[in-house]
Design brief:
By secondary structure, this protein is mainly alpha-helical. The protein has 2 domains: about 30 residues; about 110 residues, Arc Repressor Mutant, subunit A (Orthogonal Bundle), CATH 1.10.10.10. It contains 7 helices and 3 strands, in the order ααααβααββα. A 3-stranded antiparallel sheet has the order 1-3-2.
Length: about 150
């Protein structure tokens, strides 16, 4: 629609614009996929639908939103809206991620109070999360907390 109504009119055909966008998007996806640890790439490659792959990217980003917290919330309504699916489908994806070893539930849903909480475990190698703080980082964080 924007292409047809653009002023001035684009000089190149719409299909060429679409092809360029597809190439750009594929580059973004390759760049993002390269950020994953080997165990995370392995888990990502196990996913079979676009919704699961999109949810993986969304939840991966949520898991990194607060590095001071060992877990994070996943609100089904929010995930469903982002994916354009039903709340039940978002819940099913969350459960599938747990079954595949991508997530581990750390806290139950408390009706009208708290969302379920999860830990991202797809990046774990030998029981240590890929993005876990080193001992030095943990000591620095502890000392900074005490200094306050």
């Amino acid at each position: 629609m924007q292409y047809a109504e653009a002023n001035p009119a684009p000089a190149t055909p719409l299909d060429e614009h679409c092809a360029e966008f597809d190439q750009m998007w594929a580059g973004f996806e390759r760049h993002w996929h390269a950020k994953l640890s080997p165990p995370e790439r392995e888990k990502s490659d196990m996913l079979t639908t676009d919704n699961e792959r999109d949810a993986f990217r969304i939840v991966w980003n949520w898991s990194r939103s607060n590095s001071r917290e060992p877990d994070f919330k996943i609100v089904c309504e929010s995930l469903a809206k982002r994916l354009g699916v039903s709340i039940q489908t978002a819940s099913n994806i969350r459960c599938r991620f747990c079954a595949l070893g991508i997530l581990r539930k750390t806290a139950q849903y408390v009706p009208n109070k708290l969302a379920c909480r999860y830990q991202w475990i797809a990046g774990m190698q030998k029981g240590v999360p890929e993005h876990a703080p080193t001992i030095l980082q943990a000591v620095c964080l502890f000392n900074a907390t005490i200094a306050k």
